[in-house]
Amino acid sequence: MSRLRNPWGKPRFLVLVTVAYILWSLLPVAIAILFAFNNGRSRTTWQGFSTRWFAGPSGSVFHDPALQGALRHTLVLGVVCVLVATPLGVALALGLQRWRGPGGGTINTVMLLPLVTPEIVMGVALLLLFLKVLPGIGLGSTAQAIGQVTFTLSYVVVIVRARLVSIGRDYEEAAADLGAPPHDQLLRVVLPLLAPAIIASAAVVFAISLDDFVVTQYLSGDASTTTVSMLLYASARAAPTPALNALATIALLITLATLGLAYLVYRRFASGDDAAAMVGVEV
C-alpha cells in the first residue's frame, strides 16, 4: 500500500495498462496481416505460409484488376490531397497567424470546424453540395479529392501554426534588419524553418486520405472511384479471399513507410542547430 501511495515510485500499474492497450489494439491488425500470407482461401483457418495473394497467378493483388484499381485510385487521391491541401494549409496558417484585424477569432473557429464535425455529417453535406449546388462537378474522383482536401486542410493548419508559434518571428525580423525583402523572408527564412511541420502535415494528410471511408464513399461515382477502404467494406459480408488482407497489408505498409520517412526528415530538420545553420546559409 505504501508503494501505491508513493508518488516517486514506478507506475507499474500504468505501464501494465499501457502495454495491455497496445497489445489489444495491435492484435487484430497482426491477425489480418498474418492471414494475408495464408496458403488457402480461408481467412480464419491457417493453412500454411504463402505469398500467393500478393503476386500469385490468380486472384492476387497484382493480378486482380479490381484490387489494382482500388489501390491505384487510393494512392492517386492521397497524392492529389497532399499536393493541394499542404500548400493551401501552409498559406492559411501563415495568414491566420499574422491576422491582426477584426474577425480573426471567427475565422479560426471556422477553420477548426472540420476537426470537430462528425465525418458522416461532412459526407452528407458534401454530397448535397455536389448534387444540388455544383451539379457540374458531380460525383466521382474530382468530388472525392475536393472532399478529402476540405477536411484535411485543418490538420495542416494546426500543425504549421504550432511550428510558427514555436519559432516566433525573431529569424524573420533578423532577416528584415539585414535588408531581406518580404518575399525573401518568406522563401529563404520562414519556409525552411517550417519544413519539419510541412513534411509532417503532408504525411498526416496522406495517411488520412488513404484511411478515409465515409466522405470518399459518399462522393464516389462508379466502380472506377472505389478505394481500398470502400472495397474492404463492400467485401466484408461476402466470401472474400485473403487477397483483401494482402491489399490492406500493402496499404498499411505504404502508410507506415510514409510516416516513417516523414519522421526521419522531421528529425533531420527539426534540431535547432540544423535550423539555425540552414537559416544562416540562406540569409
Structural account:
- The protein has 283 residues and is mostly helical.
- It is built from 13 helices and no strands.
- Helix 2 packs across helix 12 (243-270) and helix 4 (65-97) packs parallel to helix 7.
- It is globular, with a radius of gyration of 23 Å.
- Mean pLDDT is 84; it is low at 272-283.
Percent helix, as a range, is over 70%
Strand count: 0
Radius of gyration (CA) equals: 23 Å
Beta-strand percent range: under 5%
What is the number of helices?
A: 13
CATH class of the largest domain: Mainly Alpha
The gist of it:
This protein has 283 residues and is mainly α.
Essential attributes:
283 residues, mainly alpha, MetI-like fold, 13 helices, 74% helix, globular
Layout of strands and helices, then pairs:
Elements lengths: L1 H4 L6 H24 L16 H4 L9 H33 L6 H13 L2 H15 L7 H27 L2 H8 L4 H30 L2 H5 L9 H8 L7 H28 L1 H11 L1
Helix pairs in contact: 2-12, 4-7, 4-9, 5-7, 7-9, 8-9, 9-12, 9-13, 11-12
